[in-house]
Amino acid sequence: MYLVLLGPPGAGKGTQAERLCSEFKLPHVASGDLFRENLQDETELGKLAKGFMDAGQLVPDDVTIAMVGERISRPDCAAGVLLDGFPRTKIQAEGLDRILSDMGKSLTGVLYIAVPDETLVQRLSGRRICKNCQTPYHIEHNPPKVEGICDNCGGELYQRDDDKPETIQARLDVFHKQTAPLIAYYQAATLLHEVDGVGGIDEVSERLIKTVKRLRGEASKTSTEQTNAKPQITKFKFGSIQVDGKKYTYDIIIRLDGSVQKRKKKLSKEKYGTSHKLSRKEMKFVYEKGASSIVIGSGQSGNVKLSRKARKYLQERDCEVLIAPSQEAVLLWNNAGPGTIALFHITC
């Protein structure tokens, strides 16, 4: 699953992102962490971003988009990712769509944690910090034993300028102004899923998890296990496969066990040329074999693409797809979970 998590300052995105990633085994890619990684490692993109930052300029969208594209193309994101802090603009959202499309993927959904401004101002303005030891408090949720006095060192507690109501409201006004076009973009694409962010952390987590499970089509743990069950191979050779006792002759090799088989003959150039576009019929064949995710490997002298109808068929069934060079695809398949079927198109 490829998810985006949105929410205003104080909505608890960081905490909820960690819980969602733990629940669904997804990498958490936060834009702030991504920038720090590129700056620290002095990557080409990091150096480019630093140049703009040192000049007191905003980092252009195309640099940010390139950073995210590089990150989610890594093997650990093959089955999905939770993006936090990206996209922030419509331009970045369109860039994300292009990245995923090039990977043979699409956005599963956008989760928006909705919290009224007055609630956020109350949450954030209640924070207090000890002047001596910097211990944090909250006048409602984590108050000191003696008002205004630190429990640890007896120091004086104070309210940071950033936590004053007028400052918080100004930040929220900027957020709404910047985010409105992004919200409208995802609403038009029917990808936005608003989740009530009022209540305890556990309550909000439960709502978010329920929403994501609905997006995945998971009614229960049992149905998930059934979906992930692998078909059994009884006979396997180039051009044909026997699955659950039935024989299928095919030009695309289906590897259900991750093994690598040497090519025994070439496909016809007249039929395929140097590339092949997978049809809806072919994807239906694979999906009905029990696939919950698919890895497609391109051959050395050709490439594989999904037809529009094939892509739509899989999206409607929330079946994840990754297209990668054959060697990388083998690695991804070997590390994939149950229910993954790997396809490798052998080209001339």
The low-confidence runs, each spanning 5 or more residues with pLDDT under 50, are: 218-244, 246-274, 329-348
The CATH homologous superfamily of the largest domain is termed P-loop containing nucleotide triphosphate hydrolases
CATH C-level of the largest domain: Alpha Beta
What's the helix count?
13
Radius of gyration: 24 Å
Tell me the major beta sheet: 5 strands, parallel
Domain module count: 2
CATH names the topology of the largest domain as Rossmann fold
What is the ordering of alpha helices and beta strands?
A: EHEHHHEHEHEEEHEHHEEEEHEHEEHEHE
Total strand count, please?
17
Oligomer: single chain
Mean residue pLDDT: 76
Strand order of the largest sheet: 2-3-1-4-8
Distance between the termini: 33 Å
Structural class: alpha/beta
Strand content: 15-25%
Q: What does the overall shape look like?
A: globular
CATH architecture call of the largest domain: 3-Layer(aba) Sandwich
Share of residues in helices: 40-55%
Q: Any overview of this molecule?
A:
By secondary structure, the chain is α/β, with parallel strands linked by helices. It has 2 domains: 173 residues, Rossmann fold; 112 residues, MTH938-like (Hypothetical Protein Mth938, Chain: A, 3-Layer(aba) Sandwich). Helix content is 41%, strand content 21%. The chain has 13 helices and 17 strands. It has a 5-stranded parallel sheet, with helices on both faces. Helix 2 crosses helix 4 and helix 6 crosses helix 7. The longest helix has 24 residues. The protein is globular. The C terminus is likely disordered.
